[in-house]
């Protein structure tokens, strides 16, 4: 299981109070979405821990490095600004989040009905029937998370569409500049010929990865919805925050191990993608488990409940990288969408 970031973001707190007399209270908009709130852990200790990646060990140079976002409006970076994208790029992923929490709420209620031996009334049977019908609709004919008016995945060429070798030389010069800016002393020049050769190999690999990712996005709207946000993030490409001591930084400089801004950004994106993959995988497992349980009369829903809990954990972790205010605005926008419908 993937680790939870030090600052946990439990993005969706859903009302679980449903009664059998009103099936509309189990409707996504009327009961769940209407009571959705963001619960944010904002202690000083948690904020300080934000600078530490949950995927790194203390011996990794990237362990205490955090990327910086571009400030809204002025285009300037701030050491406190998280990387972000305009709200419209977060909307598809927010739809995915509300969908997962809706699924979880329905499955947990259905599991509770099965465990409660006292609810052998016609009302309970009707409630179970309604819940199964909702699950059929959500899992067998899931809603679209991406509308025609939504923005799309955007992948810029890190080599600025320059011809082979010229692009690699430009990137190599930028990396040298970043290393000098992050250190307090001149770190010297790395063997440029070898570095350019490595960059040429990385460029070929990057092209293959982009094509492979496009195919995966075509197969999974969940993946594409989350990628719409991460591929449009605004990072400061020239600097980042290093939370270690001056002594630790000097040691990395002497060993020529101080990461570049590009490496810090890649590390951040890799962490987001790991959580995205977990969300996608768990949803696929949920659908498979539901189909199996349907075949045996929904006799044991414990596995389904557990899979959805893991999906929510990964989802909360993915949203934990995003500024709190942006999440609130995205939730409000999605709620208005359903209200207007």
Structure description:
The structure is a single chain. This protein has 341 residues and is mainly alpha-helical. The strands form two sheets. It has a two-stranded antiparallel sheet. It starts with 8 loop residues before the first strand and ends with a helix. The relative contact order is 0.18.
Number of helices: 11
- Strand segment tally: 4
Specify Rg, calculated over alpha carbons. 23 Å
Element pattern in H and E? EHEHEHHHHHEHHHH
Helix/strand-derived category reads mainly alpha
How would the global form be characterised? elongated
Which strand order do you get reading across the main beta sheet?
Answer: 1-2
Residue windows where pLDDT falls under 50 for at least 5 positions = 1-52, 184-188
Characterize the biggest β-sheet.
Answer: 2 strands, antiparallel
Strand content: 5-15%
Helix content: 55-70%
In short:
The protein is mainly alpha-helical.
Write the layout of secondary structure elements.
Blueprint (H helix, E strand, L loop, with lengths): L8 E5 L14 H5 L4 E4 L3 H6 L15 E5 L21 H25 L6 H19 L25 H17 L9 H28 L1 H10 L4 E8 L3 H9 L6 H35 L6 H18 L4 H17 L1
Antiparallel strand pairs: 1-2, 3-4
Keywords:
4 strands; elongated; 341 residues; 11 helices; 6% strand; mainly alpha; two-stranded antiparallel sheet; two-stranded antiparallel ribbon
């Amino acid at each position: 299981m993937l680790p939870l970031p030090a600052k946990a973001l439990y993005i969706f707190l859903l009302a679980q109070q449903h009664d059998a007399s009103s099936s509309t209270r189990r409707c996504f908009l009327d009961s769940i979405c209407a009571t959705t709130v963001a619960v944010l852990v904002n202690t000083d200790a948690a904020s300080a821990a934000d600078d530490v990646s949950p995927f790194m060990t203390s011996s990794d140079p990237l362990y205490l490095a955090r990327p910086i976002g571009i400030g809204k409006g002025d285009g300037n970076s701030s050491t406190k600004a998280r990387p972000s994208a305009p709200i419209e790029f977060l909307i598809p992923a927010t739809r995915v989040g509300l969908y997962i929490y809706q699924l979880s709420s329905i499955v947990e209620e259905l599991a509770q009905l099965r465990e409660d031996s006292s609810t052998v009334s016609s009302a309970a049977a009707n409630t179970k029937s309604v819940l199964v019908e909702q699950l059929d609709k959500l899992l067998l004919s899931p809603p679209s998370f991406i509308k025609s008016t939504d923005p799309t995945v955007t992948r810029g060429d890190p080599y600025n569409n320059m011809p082979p070798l010229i692009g690699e030389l430009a990137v190599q010069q930028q990396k040298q500049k970043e290393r000098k800016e992050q250190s307090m002393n001149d770190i010297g020049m790395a063997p440029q010929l070898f570095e350019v050769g490595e960059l040429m190999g990385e460029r070929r690999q990057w092209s293959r990865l982009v094509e492979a990712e496009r195919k995966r996005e075509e197969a999974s709207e969940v993946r594409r919805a989350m990628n719409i946000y991460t591929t449009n993030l605004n990072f400061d490409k020239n600097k980042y925050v290093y939370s270690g001591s001056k002594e630790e930084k000097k040691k990395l400089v002497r060993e020529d191990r101080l990461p570049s801004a590009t490496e810090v950004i890649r590390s951040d994106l890799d962490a987001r993608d790991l959580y995205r993959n977990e969300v996608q995988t768990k949803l696929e497992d949920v659908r498979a488990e539901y189909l199996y349980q349907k075949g045996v009369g929904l006799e044991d829903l414990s596995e389904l409940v557990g899979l959805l809990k893991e999906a929510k954990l990964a989802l909360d972790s993915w949203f934990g990288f995003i500024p709190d205010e942006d999440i609130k605005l995205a939730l409000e926008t999605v709620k208005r969408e359903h209200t207007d419908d």
